[in-house]
C-alpha cells in the first residue's frame, strides 16, 4: 500500500501527550528512587504505618538493654522519636541492613554517613563500620567524637574497599555512655545530576531515557487516603510537610502499607522534573478522602485551597513572593514553570464534586494560565464517571483525569474509545492505565491503544502508564513499568513501548491516505494446517480481495467476508513457513465509541496475529 501524507492541513497538536506517573507504592521512593540506605533512619516507624512496625523496626542490637526509644527531648517537633542509648560496663552495638536485607555498596564509590546526637553525660566516641554478613569489613571503622551538649549533626564520607550486597552498618557505643541518637543516614554521594538529597542515579536515568513530557506526582491514592489534620501521622498528603531539611519533615503513613519519610519531597520532585526535561504535574488532595468519606468542612476549605495556591507560588513565584522565596532559599531562584495542576486523584462522591469548584475558582482567578485537571473517578464508564465529566464541563476544567486497569481484550475492544469524544470542551488526561500484565502481548496491546490516543490528540491531552516503579522485594501492585532491586534496574517490555512512543512523539497529527492493499507476512517456525480468521467488534467491516500465497505457489483468492463477529477461513492444507495474505478493508459507520479490531491468524497452535483498525 502507498501512504500519502498531506501536511497542508494542520490537525491536532500532540502537545505534552506522553508522560509518567510516580507514586510511592511498591517502595518506589523509600527503598527506591530516594536512595537513603538506612531503613527507619529516624525511629519514626509505627503501627499506624504498618501493623508489624515499631520504632526500632529495621534495627538490630548487641547488648539490647542499652537501647530505648525516647520522646521527651526530641530533635524537633516533627521528629519526635529518637534512640536513647545508655551503656554500663559493656559496649553496645546498633545495626541496620537497609531495605533489602543487606546494603549494596560498591567499591570505589563514596557514601555519606550522618547522624544527629546529643550526649547526656560526658563526651564520647562512636565507632562506625560496615561489615558484610561474613563479618568482613567493607569500610574501615571510623570514629566520631560527640561532645556538643546540644543536638548536633555529625557527618563523614566513607568509601568501601570491596563491593557487597549484604552490608550492614554497625555503630558501636562505648561502655559508660549516655547519648541520644536520631536521623542515622547513609546516602550515596553520587546521585542523579549530583543533587543534594537527590535521587538514585540508575532509576532516574531510566526515567530520563523515556523522554517523558510530564511527570504526575505524588499519587494516586497516596494523596487522598488519609485524615484531615496536617500534623497527623496518617494525614492526607500535604506538600508543605515535604520541603526543607529532611530531619524536619514528619514521617508519614503511606496508605500502601509502609512508612514514607517524605525525603523525596516537592522540591526534589520539581528538581527531578527539570533534570529529566518533564513538566511537573502535581496532584493535590481536595480536602476530601473518598476512601473514608472524610471531608474538610466547606467553610474551612481555605487551608486546602491555599495549599494549592501556595504550591503554584512555590513553583512559579518570584523570589520576592513568600513561597517563591522559600524555593529560592532552597537553592532554586528560577521558577519551575508549573503549567498543570490536578485537584483530586481518582475521586468519587459528592464530597469531591462540591469541593472542586472552590479550588477551581480560586486558582483560575489568581493563576488563569494554570491548566486544571478534574477527576472522573476510577474505571471508565461508571455512573460517577459521567458526573466527573459534567463537573468538568460546568466549571471549564482543562482536562479530566480518567483511570483504568483492564485486560488486554478490553484495550483491543476499546481502540476507538476516544473517536467519539467531543472535539470541544475539556480534554482527557489519561492519568493511569495499564493492561493487566507485563507480557509482550500487553505491551503490544498498549502500543496499539496508544495509536488511538495519538489519533485523538485533539481530545486526549495527556496520558501516562501506571504504576511506574516496583522494588521487587515489596511489590504491592502489578503490573508496573520498571522493576528494580538495590543493585539493578529491569524495565518491563511495556517500558520499551512507552519509550518508543515518547521518543518518537510527533508534534501534530497529519492527514494521510492509504491506497492499495495492506499486506502481511507471517513467519512461523513450523508448518501448520490452519485456519485464518478475521474478527470485528462491530458489523461494519468488509474484508475483500483476500489473496493467500504460500511461498512461490500461485496466489489463491479466498472468499470475501462481511464481518459481524469472528469469522474463519479454512485453508485445509499445509502451509509453509512463510506465506502472505493480502486483503482490502472497508470500514463504514458503526458506533465509534464501541471500537473494533481485526485479528488475523491461525488457530492450529493457538497463535494469533492481529491488526488493529
Ligand atoms: O496506580 C495505583 C493506584 O490505582 C493509584 O494509587 C490509584 O489512583 C488507582 O486506584
UniProtKB/TrEMBL annotation:
Signal peptide residue numbers: none
Enzyme class (EC, first level): hydrolase
Reaction equations catalysed: Hydrolysis of terminal non-reducing alpha-L-arabinofuranoside residues in alpha-L-arabinosides
Source organism superkingdom: Bacteria
The keyword Hydrolase belongs to this UniProt entry's keyword annotation: yes
Keywords: Hydrolase, Signal
UniProt-listed Enzyme Commission number(s): 3.2.1.55
Family: Belongs to the glycosyl hydrolase 51 family.
Protein name: non-reducing end alpha-L-arabinofuranosidase
Source species of the chain: Lentilactobacillus fungorum
Entire protein: shown range: 4 to 616 of 769
Amino acid at each position: 500500500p502507498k501512504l500519502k501524507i498531506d501536511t497542508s492541513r494542520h490537525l491536532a497538536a500532540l502537545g505534552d501527550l506522553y508522560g509518567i506517573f510516580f507514586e510511592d507504592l511498591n517502595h518506589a521512593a523509600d527503598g527506591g528512587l530516594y536512595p537513603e540506605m538506612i531503613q527507619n533512619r529516624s525511629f519514626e516507624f509505627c503501627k499506624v504505618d504498618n501493623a508489624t512496625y515499631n520504632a526500632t523496626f529495621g534495627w538490630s542490637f548487641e547488648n539490647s538493654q542499652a537501647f530505648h526509644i525516647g520522646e521527651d527531648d526530641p530533635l524537633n517537633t516533627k521528629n519526635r522519636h529518637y534512640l536513647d542509648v545508655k551503656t554500663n560496663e559493656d559496649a553496645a552495638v546498633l545495626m541496620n541492613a537497609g531495605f533489602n536485607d543487606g546494603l549494596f555498596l560498591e567499591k570505589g564509590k563514596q557514601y555519606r554517613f550522618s547522624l544527629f546526637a546529643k550526649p547526656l553525660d560526658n563526651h564520647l566516641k562512636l565507632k562506625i563500620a560496615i561489615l558484610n554478613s561474613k563479618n568482613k569489613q567493607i569500610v574501615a571503622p571510623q570514629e566520631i567524637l560527640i561532645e556538643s551538649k546540644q543536638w548536633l549533626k555529625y557527618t563523614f564520607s566513607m568509601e568501601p574497599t570491596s563491593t557487597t550486597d549484604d552490608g550492614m552498618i554497625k555503630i558501636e557505643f562505648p561502655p559508660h555512655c549516655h547519648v541520644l541518637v536520631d536521623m542515622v543516614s547513609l546516602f550515596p554521594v553520587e546521585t542523579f545530576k549530583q543533587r543534594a538529597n537527590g535521587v538514585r542515579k540508575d532509576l532516574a536515568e531510566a526515567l530520563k531515557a523515556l523522554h517523558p513530557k510530564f511527570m504526575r506526582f505524588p499519587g494516586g491514592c497516596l494523596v487522598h487516603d488519609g485524615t484531615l489534620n496536617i500534623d497527623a501521622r496518617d494525614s492526607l498528603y500535604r506538600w508543605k510537610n515535604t520541603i526543607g531539611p529532611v530531619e524536619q519533615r514528619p514521617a508519614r503513613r503511606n496508605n500502601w502499607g509502609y512508612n514514607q519519610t517524605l525525603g523525596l519531597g516537592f522540591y526534589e520532585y520539581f528538581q527531578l522534573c527539570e533534570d529529566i526535561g518533564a513538566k511537573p504535574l502535581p496532584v493535590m488532595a481536595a480536602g476530601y478522602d473518598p476512601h473514608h468519606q472524610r471531608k474538610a468542612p466547606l467553610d474551612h476549605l481555605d487551608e486546602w485551597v491555599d495549599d494549592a495556591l501556595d504550591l503554584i507560588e512555590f513553583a512559579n513565584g518570584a523570589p520576592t513572593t513568600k513561597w517563591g522565596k522559600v524555593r529560592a532559599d532552597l537553592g532554586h531562584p528560577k521558577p519551575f514553570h508549573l503549567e498543570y495542576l490536578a485537584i483530586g486523584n481518582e475521586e468519587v462522591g459528592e464530597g469531591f464534586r462540591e469541593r472542586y469548584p472552590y479550588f477551581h475558582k480560586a486558582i483560575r482567578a489568581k493563576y488563569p494560565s494554570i491548566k486544571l485537571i478534574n477527576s472522573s473517578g476510577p474505571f471508565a464508564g461508571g455512573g460517577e464517571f459521567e458526573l466527573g465529566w459534567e463537573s468538568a464541563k460546568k466549571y471549564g476544567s482543562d482536562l479530566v483525569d480518567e483511570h483504568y486497569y483492564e485486560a488486554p481484550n478490553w484495550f483491543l475492544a476499546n481502540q476507538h474509545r476516544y473517536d467519539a469524544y467531543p472535539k470541544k470542551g475539556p480534554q482527557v488526561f489519561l492519568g493511569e492505565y495499564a493492561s493487566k500484565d507485563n507480557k509482550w502481548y500487553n505491551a503490544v496491546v498498549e502500543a496499539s491503544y496508544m495509536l488511538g490516543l495519538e489519533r485523538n490528540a485533539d481530545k486526549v491531552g495527556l496520558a501516562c502508564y501506571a504504576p511506574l516503579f516496583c522494588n521487587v522485594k515489596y511489590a504491592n501492585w502489578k503490573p508496573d513499568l520498571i522493576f528494580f532491586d538495590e543493585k539493578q534496574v529491569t524495565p518491563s517490555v511495556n517500558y520499551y513501548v512507552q519509550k518508543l512512543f515518547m521518543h518518537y512523539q510527533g508534534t501534530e497529527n497529519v492527514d494521510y491516505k492509504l491506497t492499495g492493499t495492506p499486506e502481511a507476512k507471517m513467519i512461523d517456525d513450523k508448518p501448520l494446517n490452519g485456519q485464518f480468521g478475521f474478527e470485528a467488534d462491530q458489523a461494519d467491516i468488509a474484508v475483500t480481495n483476500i489473496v493467500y500465497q504460500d511461498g512461490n505457489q500461485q496466489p489463491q483468492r479466498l472468499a470475501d467476508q462481511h464481518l459481524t463477529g469472528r469469522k474463519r477461513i479454512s485453508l485445509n492444507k499445509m502451509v509453509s513457513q512463510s506465506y502472505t495474505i493480502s486483503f482490502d478493508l472497508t470500514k463504514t459507520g458503526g458506533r465509534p465509541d464501541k471500537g473494533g479490531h481485526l485479528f488475523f491468524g491461525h488457530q492450529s497452535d493457538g497463535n494469533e496475529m492481529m491488526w488493529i483498525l
